[in-house]
Amino acid sequence: MGELAAEQHAKYILKVEKKKDDIESVLMEHLRINGVYWGLTTLDMLGKLSAVDQETVISWVMSCQHESGGFGGNEGHDPHVLYTLSAIQILALFNKIEILDIEKVSNYITTLQNEDGSFSGDKWGETDTRFSYVAICSLALLKQLDKINVEKAVKYIISCKNLDGGFGCTPGAESHAGQIFCCIGALAITGCLHYVDKDLLGWWLCERQVKSGGLNGRPEKLPDVCYSWWVLSSLIMIDRVRWIDKEKLVKFILECQDKENGGISDRPDDAVDVFHTYFGVAGLSLLEYPGLKAIDPAYALPVDVINRIFLN
Amino acid sequence: MDSDEDERTLLPLSQRPEWSDVTPVPQNDGPNPVVPIAYSEEFAEVMGYFRAVYLADERSLRALHLTTEAIQFNAGNYTVWQFRRLILEALNADLHEELEFVEQLASKNSKNYQLWHHRRWVAEKLGTEAASRELEFTKNIFVNDAKNYHAWSHRQWVLQNLGGWEDELAYCNELLEDDIFNNSAWNQRYFVITRHPGLGGIEATIDSELDYTIKSILIKPENESPWRYLRGLHKNNVQSFVTNPKISTLCLNVLTSKANPVFALSLLLDLISKGFEPNQDLKNAIEVVVPESNSQDSDISVTICTVLEIIDQMRVNYWRWRKKNLHPQVAEGVANLHIH
C-alpha cells in the first residue's frame, strides 16, 4: 500500500499560500479565506501549523471583516456566512476567537435566519442547507447558538429529508453527500440526530463506495476525494462508519496524491488543489491514518481545537 | 455591437476616454511584489477600476459594462455580481437582456453558484412570464450535463414559484430514456408526483409509477435509483408494499435472470422484514445465487444476508449488521459469528 507524502503536502500548502500572482490564485481571490482555512487546517493535521506566521494571517483575516460584522472572502469583498465561518475557524486554530467582537459577528449571522427556519447566505437571500450548517457551526463555536431559533432551524433541515434518508439543498432537492454532511453536521451540533433514520441514511452513504474504493456523492456519479470527507464524516456522526470498506478508501485517497510535488487531486492522475488536499487529509484523519491529528467530523476542526473551545 | 465599440473594449481601461476621471484601486494582497503574466495584467486592471466604482458606489451604465468585463474574466467573484444587481436596480435595466447575458456565460460556468443565484434573482423579478424561458434554460444545460445540481435546484424553484408543471413528468420520461441511471431525473419524478398541484399525489399515481419503475428495473437491474424509488413510493403504505404480487414477482424475475442480484436481494430482505413470506420459487432462486456457498438457513432472510455478504463484499459489515438485527432470536444466534 502507498504512503502519505506528508512533507510534500505541507510544502505544497505553504507554496500556495505564498504564491498570489498565478492565474489560479487570482481567479480564487474572492474566496481566499476558504482557501486559507483549508490550507491551515491541513497543516495543523500534519502537525505543521507553526510553519505559518500567525500574526500576519490573523491581521489579514480581520481585514476581511465588513462593517456588518460578517466576513468577506477577501479584503474588500461583501460579507457572506460562508466566509464568516472560515474566519471563525481560522481564529479557532490559533486559539484567538476572543479577538472577535462576538456580539457583532453573532448578530450578523442571526439576521440571516428566515421565517421558516432556513438560513440565507447573505442579504441577497439565497437559501440552502449549506448555510444552515455554516450558521449553526459558526454560532456554536462562538457559543451563541441560543441567538437563533434552533427549533425552527432544525425543523427546516428535517423538511429537506428525502425518501432515501438523505438531504438536499432545499425541500425536495436530490440527496447529495455534500448537503447531507451539512444537514447531519447541523443536527449533530444542535443535538438533534434522533430525527435521522440512521440505518436508512447509513445504507445510502455506504452505497457511495464504488469498485475503486473511492466514494461518490450521488448514485451513478464518479468518485471524488472530497466525498471522503462529506460521506465519511456523516457516517461517523451517525455511528455507521463500519459499513464502508475503510482500507479500500484509504488506498483510493493515497492514489490521488502527487507524491513528488505534493497536493491531492479529486481522483488519481488529475491536477491537485488545496481544496482536495484538505479533504483527502481530513478523510485520512477520520480513518485514523497514523501520524495525523484527529479532526472533529461535525466542526471540521482538529479535535484538540474543539476541546479547547468547549472544555475550558 | 458596431466596430467602434469593439475597438473601444479592446483598449486598456487607462486609455479609454470615458474612464479618464477614475483612478483604479489595487488589490491589497500584502508586501510581495508581483510580476503578472499578460492575461492577469488585463484582469488586474479591470478589477482595479471595478474597486474604484464599487468604493464610490457608482451605479452607472459604464459601471454595468465594467461588471460585464469583470465577470467575463472571473464569474466566481460574488462581490462583482452583487454590485451588478445594485446597478441593474438603479438603472431599472431590461432584465430580459440580463437573462441573455447569463445564458452566454452559462455553458462555461454551469456549476457556478453566483451565476445561478443571479439568474434566480432576475427570474424572480420577471415573475411567472419567465417560467417557460427558465424551464427551457435548464433543459439546455441538461443537454450537456443532465445531473447538474444547480440546474435541478433552479428548475424545482421555477416550478414551485413560477409554474409550468404540465409537461414535467413527460420530461422526466425523456431524460430517463436518454439515461435510465440519471438519479436526478428519478428524484424529479418523486418531486413531481408529490408536489404537482394537479396530479393527486402518490395515491393517485402509485399504480402507473410502480409499473414504470418495474419496467425500468428490468431494463437495468443494477441501477440503484429505481429500486430506491420503488421503496419511496411505498413509504407510507407498507401494507401495499408487502402484499403487491408485482413486487415479489419483480424480485423473482431479476433473481432468475443473469443480472446482478444485489438490489433484488436487498429489496426482498426489506419485504421479509416487513412480514412478506416468500414462496418456494423465490427461496430456490435465492439459494442458487451462490450455489457453492453453504448459505442455506431455515430462516430465508439469514440466507439472503449470507449471500449478500459474499456478493457485495464492500459492504460486508452492513450485511452482517442486517443479519444480526433481523429478529431478536437470530440476533442471539449469530452474536458469536458477528465480526467487527
From TrEMBL, chain A:
GO cellular component, alphabetical, reads: Rab-protein geranylgeranyltransferase complex
What domain of life?
Eukaryota
**Which EC numbers does the record give?**
2.5.1.60
State how the cofactor is bound.
Binds 1 zinc ion per subunit.
Residue span, Prenyltransferase alpha-alpha toroid domain: 4-300
Q: Which reaction does it catalyse?
A: geranylgeranyl diphosphate + L-cysteinyl-[protein] = S-geranylgeranyl-L-cysteinyl-[protein] + diphosphate
Cofactors per UniProt? Zn(2+)
Q: Provide a GO biological process annotation.
A: root development
Pfam family of the protein (one): Prenyltrans
Gene Ontology molecular function: any one: Rab geranylgeranyltransferase activity
Q: Which UniProt keywords apply?
A: Metal-binding, Prenyltransferase, Repeat, Transferase, Zinc
Keyword Disulfide bond assigned: no
Biological function: Catalyzes the transfer of a geranylgeranyl moiety from geranylgeranyl diphosphate to both cysteines of proteins with the C-terminal sequence -XXCC, -XCXC and -CCXX. Required for male fertility and root tip growth.
Family per UniProt?
A: Belongs to the protein prenyltransferase subunit beta family.
Q: Please describe the quaternary structure of this protein.
A: Heterotrimer composed of the alpha subunit RGTA, the beta subunit RGTB and REP; within this trimer, RGTA and RGTB form the catalytic component, while REP mediates peptide substrate binding.
- This one is known as Geranylgeranyl transferase type-2 subunit beta
Organism of origin: Deinandra increscens subsp. villosa
TrEMBL record, chain B:
> Record keywords: Transmembrane helix included?
no
Ranges for region Disordered? 1-33
Q: State which Enzyme Commission number(s) the record gives.
A: 2.5.1.58, 2.5.1.59
Which coenzymes or cofactors are required? Mg(2+)
- Name any GO cellular component annotation: CAAX-protein geranylgeranyltransferase complex
Which InterPro entries does the record associate with it? Prenyl_trans_a
Kindly state which reaction or reactions the protein catalyses: geranylgeranyl diphosphate + L-cysteinyl-[protein] = S-geranylgeranyl-L-cysteinyl-[protein] + diphosphate; L-cysteinyl-[protein] + (2E,6E)-farnesyl diphosphate = S-(2E,6E)-farnesyl-L-cysteinyl-[protein] + diphosphate
A GO molecular function assigned to this protein is: CAAX-protein geranylgeranyltransferase activity
PROSITE patterns per UniProt: PFTA
Lineage: superkingdom: Eukaryota
Q: Function of this protein?
A: Essential subunit of both the farnesyltransferase and the geranylgeranyltransferase complex. Contributes to the transfer of a farnesyl or geranylgeranyl moiety from farnesyl or geranylgeranyl diphosphate to a cysteine at the fourth position from the C-terminus of several proteins having the C-terminal sequence Cys-aliphatic-aliphatic-X.
- Annotated family: Belongs to the protein prenyltransferase subunit alpha family.
Q: What is this protein called?
A: Protein farnesyltransferase/geranylgeranyltransferase type-1 subunit alpha
